[in-house]
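Q&A log
Question type: sequence-to-structure
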Amino acid sequence: MNNKLSLVIPCYNEELIINNTVQEVLIHLNELISSGRVSPESNILLVDDGSTDKTWDRITALCKKHLAVRGIKLSRNSGHQTALLAGLMQAKDKCDVTISLDADLQDDISVLKDFMDEYNSGSDIVYGVRSDRSSDTLFKRASAEFFYRILSFLGVKSIFNHADYRLMSKRSLDVLSQYKETNLYLRGIIPLIGFKHSIVLYKRKPTERPTHYPFFKMLQLAMDGVTSFSIKPLRFIFSLGILMFFISLILLGYAGYVKLYGNTVPGWTSLMFTVLFLGGIQLFCVGIVGEYIGKIYSEVKQRPRYVIEEDTYFDSIK
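Response status: OK
Response body:
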């Protein structure tokens, strides 16, 4: 096969590992070329997501040293999902197929050949799916499973135990480019494309390296996943409002009954409980509505999702 492959790797403050990462990926890329699975013109595209260290300096040095390495630098830190999209969009007109992976190489790159085999068998999208989560902490395993179950309950189409390790053909990337939302959750957008897909199972390597996705970033990603693809939380608020209305009618009738027969008793505890409970529900509901309004606010402005400051890939900066 003469498919030109681009391996897209978002990078943020990776100066300590980027050299080793590229060396290891080059070994596997050369194996793919030697086996005839991909074209000798295949490359590695490193996306610097506004790093504050010397990541870009390392990338430019690697580009000069290896013909197969390319790089683009975003003008500011835009987040992993945006950086990944930037790399995919810049690569789509220069290759036949892309595979996205993380710079720490926790995802097993020995299965790259399996990705290409599935692509050559007719799949436009190939998802890398973890066969187990034994390398994760108990909390991370439980929270991940809970998150996927919530997405499924809300009707969001997603691939269980899949992150952003995936292959995409040129025509699937062309379709992806038509999705213009600012609040990106690629794990939910890509299944909407609908082309033939398949799955490659792999085991993730444990790492002691600090993650660039701490708890609050993961929480924000989860919120984006829910609010970008489902309005069920808003319907839940509506249903909760109706339920509370009927409960209020029942309590009102009970209060009138007690007053009528003169059995009134000072009820400070129950009053405080009711006020705090209803106040908490109201704040929770206002927060959900605010999250959707915030999404609308950021979408209608239609600002650029990213700006490329420098590149070693294209004829001009875009």
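Response note: The two ends are 31 Å apart (CA to CA).
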